[in-house]
Write a structure and sequence with these properties.
five-stranded mixed barrel; three-stranded antiparallel sheet
Length: 148
């Protein structure tokens, strides 16, 4: 089965699925302002807080905590592509990574989701391309004991 990342600019450069860390998802990359220290995700070219700093790439932590969450019960607006068989509700939330909040899918059963839940970066299926390639996006799953 062939897979690819939904947008490689969201992730640390390197080959996905190869090498000694092949079981680990690619790390998310945001940007940090050199003047005020503001961190953003996804990357952007100017600081949202000050006009003075240059933005440079900042690899984000793989672990965080659920800050807030909800159920995405209806299909989002384009460019969302529903999976074969149509839209199925899924959980989304803000994950606090310390320096920045990241909006992401939560690969966590409803019974386990709570504000403050420790979570860890993972990849989740976004859709399947016309050529059969599974396209993956980032998400967060419940962190297992001992992963921190």
């Amino acid at each position: 089965m062939t897979t690819r990342l939904i947008d490689e600019s969201l992730f640390e450069s390197g080959e996905f699925g190869e090498g000694p860390d092949a079981g680990d998802p690619p790390r998310l990359v945001g940007a940090r302002c050199s003047a005020c220290g503001t961190v953003v995700f996804p990357r952007q070219h100017s600081c949202p807080r000050c006009p003075d700093g240059a933005m440079s790439a900042r690899v984000l932590p793989v672990s965080g905590r659920v800050w807030s969450w909800t159920l995405q019960a209806f299909p989002p607006k384009p460019p969302y592509r529903p999976p074969s068989g149509g839209h199925r509700p899924y959980h989304v939330g803000y994950v606090d990574l310390g320096e920045v909040l990241v909006e992401a899918r939560l690969a966590v059963p409803r019974a386990q989701i709570r504000i403050g839940l420790p979570v860890r970066l993972t990849t989740v299926p976004a859709y399947r391309d016309e050529d059969g390639t599974d396209v993956l996006t980032f998400g967060f799953r419940a962190e297992l004991d001992g992963e921190r």
